Amino acid sequence: MATMGIVTKQHLLTYMYLLVYITLSSGVILYNKWVLSTLYFNFPFPITLTMIHMAFSGGLAFLLVRVFKVVSPIKMTFNIYATCVVPISAFFSASLWFGNTAYLFISVAFIQMLKALMPVATFLVAVTCGTEKLRCDVFWNMVLVSVGVVISSYGEIQFNVLGTVYQVTGIVAEALRLVLTQVLLQKKGLTLNPITSLYYIAPCSFVFLFIPWYILEKPEMEDPHMQFNFWIFFSNAVCAFALNLSTFLVIGRTGAVTIRVAGVLKDWLLITLSTVLFPESKITGLNIIGYAIALIGVVMYNYLKVRDVRTSQLQSSQDGSTKELQTEKKTVVDMDNREETLWNDSVSDTNFDEEAPLMASSRTSHLGIGRKPA
């Protein structure tokens, strides 16, 4: 009876984490739309908003790492920073810049539909860079997703070319960041959890964003009629940082399958909420049909990726079992190493949310690789 009570309590805690993640993820996206939209809060400066997120998250990460010592920094050399952190930060800042700019031109619902292209972009970039092989099953899934997005775009009433270009460009930049992270950081044996990711990458991203901000947005922000509410931007940045941490908690308590299902539920919830909160957003039957087709492709892709991870885990377990036959001391070391590998494999193939400062895309991200949960 006591065991059942413990299991139920653990399940309830997991569901609570998932609920917090879905709520924060949807909330941050809708909050950003409300702040940037000229019909509502009317702060049409996406680079500025992104810089506020980076400054707040980087500063808070510094306090957590250096002052409160919640997590330990990694051994960062100038060479690693210049060859890994700088290029990753460049593509990360670009993905946020273009992604947030899209809110000025197209609806949240249509943006979520376009984000279904994230696995397609990541797969193509990975194949081009040689980090993934061109597989027939995955390729046809990507074709299905692309066809669905095209149908959905065709059915969009308020289709805007510029907004679509901004969003697709942001997706491509994010795909490049994900693959670069895998190639540059993982090959060097470095792992970053959400807090250390922000600690190293947020300040560098802020610098990259400063250049376009100074050219494009600073002159317009000198308008004396521009409104700036401290509490609005403070709460917006807090929500973005909280989303980052909630993602880490969720992946520590659930597997790849659960987080992927949660991501799909969040997308549908977000599309529904956006049409209620922003009446100017209209969804057509063709939108829904196209997105449903794209979602089928995404779900099939997720299944293939989860299957690959489980196969890798099974192989790792078999290898570990063979090594356990040697000595008791070596057994302990092998089990610890295998546990670390399984955690990193599970996290590296998990869907993260693009609105979290360093948890990109509701489709795929590899930068959230971190420590094992306690």
From TrEMBL:
Which residue ranges does UniProt annotate as crossing the membrane? 12-31, 43-68, 80-98, 104-126, 138-159, 165-185, 197-216, 228-250, 257-278, 284-304
Keyword Transmembrane helix applies: yes
User: What membrane topology term does the record carry?
Assistant: Multi-pass membrane protein
- The answer to whether the entry has keyword Transferase is no
Query: Where is the protein found, in the record's own terms?
Result: Membrane
Q: Which UniProt keywords apply?
A: Membrane, Transmembrane, Transmembrane helix
The protein's name is Sugar phosphate transporter domain-containing protein
Gene coding for it: Vigan.04G383600
